[in-house]
Amino acid sequence: MPLLSEKVAAETRQILTELRDPVRMTCFTQAGCHSCGHVVELAGEVAALSPHLRLETKDFVAAAAAASRLDVPRVPALVLSREGEARAPVRYYGLPAGHEFGAFLRTLVLLSTGRGMPGVDAAAVAPIARPARLKVFVLASCPRCPEMVYLCSSIAAFSPLVTVDVIDANAFPDLVSRFKVGSVPKVIIDETVDVLDIVPAAALIEKIATAIRPS
Amino acid sequence: MSGPDFDTGFALRAPAGAPGLDPGRLYDALVLGAGPAGISAAIYLVRKGLATGVVAQSLGGQVAWTAGIENYLGYRLIDGAALVERFREQVAEFPPDLGLGLEVSGVERRGDRFLVRAGGAEYGARTVVVATGKRPRLLGVPGEQRLLGRGVATCATCDAPLYRGKPVGVVGGGNSGLEAALDLAKIASRVIVFQDLDRLTADAVLERRARALPQIELRLGSAVTEILGEERVRAVRVRPRAGGAPSELAVEGVFVEIGLTPNSGPVRGLAPMNARGEIAVDCVCRTAVPGLFAAGDVTNVPYKQIVVAAGEGAKAALSAADYLLRHDGGG
Questions:
Q1: Between chains, do A99 and B9 touch, taking CB under 8 Å as contact?
Q2: Is A119 in Cβ contact with B81 (below 8 Å)?
Q3: Which of A139, B21, B38, B166 has its CA 20 to 30 A from that of B15?
Q4: Rounded CA separation A3/B4 (Å)
Q5: Are B101 and B3 a contacting pair, CB within 8 Å?
Q6: Helix (H) / strand (E) containing B309
Q7: What band does B151 get if pLDDT is binned at 50, 70 and 90?
Q8: What residues form DSSP beta bridges with A189?
Q9: Residues sharing a CB contact under 8 Å with residue B195, sequence separation 6 or more, in sequence order
Q10: Nearest 5°: CA angle at B128, between B124 and B132?
Q11: Three-state secondary structure call for residue A59
Q12: How far is B280 from B96, CA to CA, in rounded Å?
């Protein structure tokens, strides 16, 4: 039985009609990973709903070089990039289910069309002058999380210096413990600065720009 | 066993056919906020044929964060996110110019017009309907700010799964407090509800459900005076209302559900407000400023309910339309 119901698949197909340029989804899995199956299945079902989506599934161990090149340290991972570009601005760790699914679809549209969060464009992200890595902790049950995921993904789409890891807090309790996540959405900038809840685009961009320390 | 759910809804997705906001356009009405009051106002204004814009952080407001809604007319039980989808579908029938993902930073009156600043741009309008809602209020006790996001939370719907098998506290014995406790009881090992009054203020139906669950403990007449922990919440300090020594109770999460504070900042200094910061309106949603209207939770209208907010939004829109008819000949 497919993961997406007929109704959700129809809604998804409709949203994906907005895609313009091809988007690549690279899915990393590993033998013995219980949650990997659902991610592969979902990616396959979504990819089948648009001719603009390219899906590639890789074994985390066998394709260790590719995982390293795409900076993927754990599974299940779903790496999103514009087709033909080496840079991958957004990585999903865990299944983008529940409320996260809507943000996942909008991120595909964002990467394909360049249309993202209002107020986020190349000029808006210009103050970010050094590389930054954002970790966005989310839960499928959290209706507030997609806004922050979309905002972070929009920033990463426009700034070649920013990458985003969207982390399902349910799937990675070790990261929840390490980064002391007690509520979501929570953004961690470069493993040093916490941003809680929903903040306006300009405020987050400023935090990223000022949080980045000289290397 | 059922598989995972997938929701294509997205608070920042504009309804089909809704154009974006245009800084070069003078709107008949700009609605600030897209919760039930704002959406209702926008639908009424568009249906009147008025040039209408909506500026909002996201679609749905607090409704999107609500788990089960049992008292909105036409639905026996509906999830907040699903109700927002119904709102979105209705807005698609009567689309205003929509600016989502924008925070309003200020509203200024210039002559007979208003200037609304949001997301680095300025938008002009003949009338403004403020429907910016409320946000969770915090306790203001030691430890709370420091541990916010590290065990102190304000959204049980969002965060409950992080407290699986752990003891948690809920501060507040009103509807929000008991709804949070009921949500958490499905996941947490123990849920202690702290209410500083000697009685609960929640609806009887919620109280009945809470009292029926053995994992929920109601501590009436108990005020949380401090939240303890270094990097994570480990306990709360509680003072009995009747007197006596404060005690410490071990919890790993504290959900603060003591009400809301109005998002009235953008019109502070422009529109009169009450002591709680709510915008003062008359019975047809007029503020003291001609052409400035307000509706929903951000106003001094009592009973913060979705159905009340939707009705107030309709009233504000009709008042704005009436104002335009009298002052501008309908725009």
A1: yes
A2: no
A3: A139
A4: 7
A5: no
A6: helix B306-327
A7: very high
A8: A134, A193
A9: B172, B173, B177, B201, B218, B219, B220, B221, B222
A10: 115
A11: strand
A12: 26
CA distance A65 to chain B (A): 32
Q: Give yes or no for a contact between B156 and B180, defined as CB atoms under 8 angstroms apart.
A: yes
**Given this model, what pLDDT does residue A1 score?**
87
Chain B residues with beta carbon closer than 8 angstroms to that of A119: 101-102, 119-120
Q: With CB atoms and an 8 Å threshold, state whether A202 touches B158.
A: no
User: pLDDT per residue over A95-113, tens digit each?
Assistant: 999 989 999 999 999 999 9
Find tokens 């089909």 and name the residue: B16
Q: Which residues contact A76 (CB under 8 A, 6 or more apart)?
A: A27, A28, A29, A33, A35, A36, A38, A39, A40, A93, A94, A95, A171
Which domains, from first to last, does chain B contain?
A: 8-135+260-328 (3.50.50.60), 152-256 (3.50.50.60)
Q: Is the dihedral of CA B275, B278, B280, B284 positive or negative?
A: negative
Name the percent of chain B lying above pLDDT 70: 96
A40 forms beta bridges with none
Chain B residues at the A interface, defined by Cβ less than 8 Å, are 3-13, 20, 57-58, 60, 64-65, 80-81, 99-103, 119-120, 147-155, 157-162, 231-233, 253
* B149:A183 CB<8 A: yes
Answer yes or no: do B101 and A98 touch at CB < 8 A. no
Chain B CB contacts of A105 below 8 Å? 8, 10
pLDDT tens digits for B247-268? 999 999 999 999 889 999 999 9
Closest by Cβ to A146, choosing from B10, B231, B232: B10
C-alpha distance from B283 to closest chain A C-alpha (Å): 33
Confidence (pLDDT) at A203: 87
